[in-house]
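Continuing the series of single-chain predictions for the mutant panel. This is the parent chain; the variants come on the following pages.
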Amino acid sequence: MNPYDNILIYGANGYTAELIVQLAIAEGAKPILAGRSADKIAPLAARHGLPMRIFPLDDPRTIANNLAGVTAVINCAGPFSRTATPMALGCIKAAVHYLDITGEIEVFEALTALGHEATAAGVMLMPGTGFDVVPSDCLAAHLKQRMPDANSLTLAFQTIGKASHGTATTMLENMHRGGFIRRDGKLAEVPSAWAVCDIDFGSGPTSAMTIPWGDVATAWVSTSIPDITVYMAAPKSLIAMARIARYGGWLFGSKIVQTLLKRKIDSAPAGPNLQQRQRGSAHLWGEVRNASGQIASARLDTVEGYNLTAQTAWDIAKRSVDGAAQPGFRTPSMVFGADYILNFSGTIRTDLR
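Parent structure:
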């Protein structure tokens, strides 16, 4: 038996989950595939000859009963704002490590609140084991090491490639809700595209806007830096749409508009194909400042985001099974170090100043 056969992947029929399953199989593992619908999970399990479990996320006790013999869960079922807390509570009851691939601030905040309970149960809660937020969390930790007295952190990222249905849907559902930054250690709500600037990700200045990326929550836990802002590279048309959403949020959030736009998303392929993922890439930039006005900055280049997510999520699950997990709420850099992301092929980190 492969030591990683006791990893359960929930929401295994999702786009990113299937990439993780493929990677696990290529390494000789037989993870347990799970989800709410047998109609969706059974064909996938049969195709790969893998075990499956079907259960809803309505009750933590029911979830715990279905985690018998499992060491770690990778939750890939979005929206994570609905699935993360019940699955995490089930994992705590069953003494199973919880991982997911979210980037949603509210999920990080909710699971942070479960940290003491998880510690008492000997369970690690580590949401954000994919592109959200492994590379950015490691970059933040690296910059903190370079400037231990930093009191301000700015992160930004640029993705070259297409978004999956899940990513596009999450962006659509949240566009009209504004964003968040962190000031003086506390979350502060700001309008959509609250700030806009040009950032050089390695190919010259690129327009970027603030977004409520997961690091606004996790980098605070990882680094204790009180002021945190995250930007995403975006074309001017998207920035304009985000700013319009400030005033027409009721329209963007209406059931009719959401339904129409989601139908358009669902009519497209589930996510980038193999060739598109191979051509894609991701580029991150970060900067810290201290009270004296000193600055340290760095860039981080990685492979395409979905490929990276499959690699990091599966690797963290394996490390958790192997005994690296630390009880309580944890971020990737807290457990594996700022240089963890450098273990993955195609990753290059460059200190700028």
